[in-house]
Amino acid sequence: MVGSLGLTPESLKASGRSSENVSLLILQGKIKRDPEGYETELQLIYKQFLTSVDLFKQQGALSFSSVVGIGSDPSVAKELGDRAMFLAHVTPFYPKQLAAFPAQLTDLLRTSCLAMPSGLRNHVAQALILLMNRKSLVIEDLLALFLDIQTLGDKNLRTLAFSHIVQTIRKMSPTDPKHKSLQKIVISMLELEDEAKAKRALATLCALHKKKIWLGDRNERVAIAICEACFHTSPRIMISALRFLLDYENIDDDDDSDAESDDDEDTKKISQVVINRQAVYKANNKGTSSSKKKKQAKLQRAVKSIKRKQRSSSENTTSAFSPLNHLNDAQKFAEKLFSRLQTIKGTGERAETRLMMIKVIARTIGLHKLHLLSFYSFLQNYAMPHVKDITQILAAAVQSCHDGVPSNAVEPLFKQIVNQFVHDRSRPEAIAVGLNVVREMCLRIHDLMTEELLQDLALYKKSHEKAISAAARSLIALFREINPSLLVKKDRGRPGATVVKPKQYGEANVFSDVPNVELLQESDHESGSDDDQDDDDDTELPSGDDVEQELIPDDCGSEDEAEEDDSDIDTSIGGDEDEEMNDSDEAEIDSENEMESEDDDGEASDSSGEDSGNEEKSKGTKRKIMDFDANLLSADTSLRALKRFAEAKNDKPSFDESDGILSNEDFRKIKELQAKKEAKIALARKGFKVPDSDQLSKKRVDPAKLEAHIRHKLTKEQRLELVKAGREDRGKYQARAAIKQKKTGGSSNKQKEHRKNMPLAAIRSKAGKSKRTKKMKNSLSGSQFRGRKAWK
User: Fold this and answer.
1) What's the number of CA atoms in the CB half-sphere (13 Å) around residue 371?
2) Is there a smaller number of Cβ atoms within 10 Å at the N or the C end of the chain?
3) Bias category Polar residues: which stretches (predicted)?
């Protein structure tokens, strides 16, 4: 519209509508309402922007520093930044006129960012972010640039660029194919030898992995790149990568805290279901007060163990997302890092760096169950009580042990720990730590312990130090579960307990089916048996009463008929065997039957005393014959019943014969049944359950737990904090005299008693008593006094 009227920049300037006299913010609002009406003003401002950019580049080519020229002029820099922001805002309304503007602005920041002042750099970066948000630029064009400008030393610009990269990638869809190209850009920058650029690339990868954006099997190249950063030529990059791998499991994000709260709620719900109501009722309502306390404490321990197990077995644990889990060749990674550890040992590298490398190697060995036998002999150089951070080194040694390592490779390290830490002349703290380390190593490798050594270590249970006695008792409790034959008889626990067979080297439990699926089958059988009892009585096994009813018919009324029936049964069953028996054998059997019948009659006469001896003898023989025949017939009928029962079971489709596919409901039911079973075991068990090797490999060894019950020496600041904490509820100290002086309301009764006049008799007795004591004192002192000495 402006061009059709023939308006030019000169005519606009003559009419007073030039860009110098119009505010850019006001003009920006007018352009958004009427883009066509202000096209000439836009062209004028765009030309001014290009002129400023050319001037800036010329001064940069002439090597002008930022102290002189346009860089040092705040007004010129402000005008250039304002025009850049203005053009970035109005670019969507003029796509043809400002088509080259995004590329020109990107080129300006890439080539002249060092010569720009801090405020101008921030304005240009914000303009580029605005263009990318308005779809005028794509993130692939700006990712490398934004990673480069983070190395300039400008903190505000670094924060702006870093947060924009993370938030932009976070808003992208997880299935967006752009992720691969972005990862390639960042990883290629991480592989550069430039320390500053590689550090910013590593920080970007760690942030995106920590926020679970570039996480999972699709983005495993990110985890591998973080792990490979441990071999970077720059020591700072290596230390940053090692620190991220070690501290990953201690990351606390908002999303993680929400997930943990949800998990806690779920475990509370599950624990209310699995804990038996009868146990809760007995703990609160039955027994004496002391027995109730014991039951309640046992119930609380069971609840805590169930919650801990459910929390550790949940799928949302941060250890499952560790970059070490996504290594393609974990053995090669561990060997390469161990060789670098050995090379930097004599180069004067800091001890903290070597400790981090040891912990990462141990974590990798335990997590993937690797074989790096020279690592254990390397740790022998540090297994001494006076070494700095010895507890963390011992935790790494425990972490590197698993059931796949032969005991011969770990035995020298194990013996050195025992000899250096556990002896009578060692400090109590060292003995406690040594016993705890021995317990954790034997928990992972059972063959390390010998009978003599275990019996010697078990004697520390009588120590007066709580840390030592607790560690020794925990060691005894462990071997009660894994190999009680190594313990002394009095330390093995209950005599009726089952004898546990220790596992051999390489022995493993292989699942041939879905784990714990038998619980689902048992529950189905129980529910099916309840239905069968109501519907089909033929498929049940016969009981003793049914057998007797089958053997004894209802129409037999007299004893003689019963005897005849028994004789017939005897002859029918006996057959040829009775014919082959000798007369002497028959006589012996008859005599034995008579003796047994007499014994039975004697017992019957003692109990009742009403029947005669002949009747008892006849009844005893009858009972003996009927019992023998009943046993034979019950065996026959039970075989027939078992066949009918098997046929009925074959008619029903079993789990194996069906499709064998479990639904989500079945898995949920298996989880509930497993929780109920563990609750019953936890309530009935005394001691602890030995975890699986997979659970031990995933679990991270905490060095603080190796120092359990150890009282460390407090510093002066810690002692002062304890003193101040004890004085919080106490009032300010005041002397008694000061309190009496501040007292109002008259004197007390005690003070009044001192002022009260004594009776006359009491005054006279007191005076006489004082006279007598004075006289006695004078008489005694007179006999002893011999005059003053001359030299005094």
Assistant:
1) 7
2) C
3) 313-322
Please give the span between the terminal C-alpha atoms of the chain, in angstroms, as a whole number.
131
Q: Which two tokens stand for residue 395?
A: 């935790």
Residues shown for the chain: 792
Task: Please tell me the distance from the alpha carbon of residue 503 to that of residue 481, in angstroms, as a whole number.
Answer: 12
Beta carbons within 10 angstroms of residue 476's beta carbon? 21
Place of tokens 């059931």: 403
Among residues 96, 148, 95, 94, which one has the least CA distance to residue 121?
A: 148
CA 208 → CA 141, 166, 318, 363, 399, distances in Å?
19, 7, 15, 23, 28
Residue 152 CA to residue 159 CA, distance in Å, equals: 12
**CA distances for 698 relative to 108, 312, 445, angstroms:** 51, 9, 16
Instruction: Indicate the burial class of 57 (C-beta count within 10 angstroms; 0-12, 13-18, 19 or more).
Output: middle
Which pair of tokens denotes residue 245? 């791998």
Q: Which two tokens stand for residue 693?
A: 């090797």
Contacts of 679 (CB under 8 A, 6+ apart): 274, 275, 276, 302, 306
Note whether 486 and 479 are within 8 A (CB): yes
- Contact indicator for 38, 86 with CB cutoff of 8 Å: no
219 contact partners, CB below 8 Å, separation of at least 6: 179, 183, 209
Residue type, 634: S
Nearest to 187 by CA among 232, 155, 151: 232
pLDDT per residue as tens digits for the range 504-539? 787 777 777 777 787 887 777 766 655 555 554 443
Q: What is the pLDDT of residues 563-612, one digit of tens each?
A: 444 434 343 334 344 444 444 444 344 444 444 444 444 444 444 444 44
Two tokens, residue 691: 């975890």
User: DSSP character for 409?
Assistant: H
Rounded distance, CA 659 to CA 714, Å? 65
Q: What distance in Å separates the CA atoms of residue 397 and residue 52, rounded to the nearest whole number?
A: 65
DSSP string covering 327-367: -S-HHHHHHHHHHHHHHSTTTT--HHHHHHHHHHHHHHHHH
485 vs 615: which has the higher pLDDT: 485
- The closest alpha carbon to 619, from 742, 610, 551, belongs to 610
Among 234-243, 532-541, 553-562, the range scoring the smallest mean pLDDT is 553-562
List Cβ<8 Å contacts ≥24 apart for 420-428. Answer: 420/383, 420/384, 420/385, 421/385, 422/457, 422/460, 426/385, 427/385, 428/463, 428/465, 428/467, 428/468, 428/710
CA distance 398 to 379: 11
Question: 321: closest CA among 212, 207, 233?
Answer: 212
* Nearest alpha-carbon partner for 460 in 489, 486, 426: 426
pLDDT at 374: 94
Contact 230, 199 (CB under 8 A): no
Secondary structure (H, E, C), 619-683: HHHHHHHHHHHHHHHHHHHHHHHHHHHHHHHHHCCCCCCCCCCCCHHHHHHHHHHHHHHHHHHHH
CA distance 251 to 215: 15
Full 3-state SS string of 244-258:
HHHHHHHCCCHHHHH
Q: Which two tokens stand for residue 541?
A: 């096994």
Query: With 0-12 CB in 10 A as exposed, 13-18 as middle and 19+ as buried, what is 108?
Result: buried
Quick check: helix, strand or coil at residue 210? helix
pLDDT one-digit tens code per residue, 49-108 = 888 888 777 766 665 444 444 444 567 678 888 889 999 998 989 988 888 898 889 888
Cβ neighbour number for residue 621 with a 10 Å cutoff: 18
Sign of CA dihedral 558, 563, 566, 568: negative
Asked if 326 and 220 count as a contact pair (C-beta separation under 8 A), the reply is yes
**Which whole-number Å values give the CA distances from 196 to 154, 191, 266, in the listed order?**
13, 12, 45
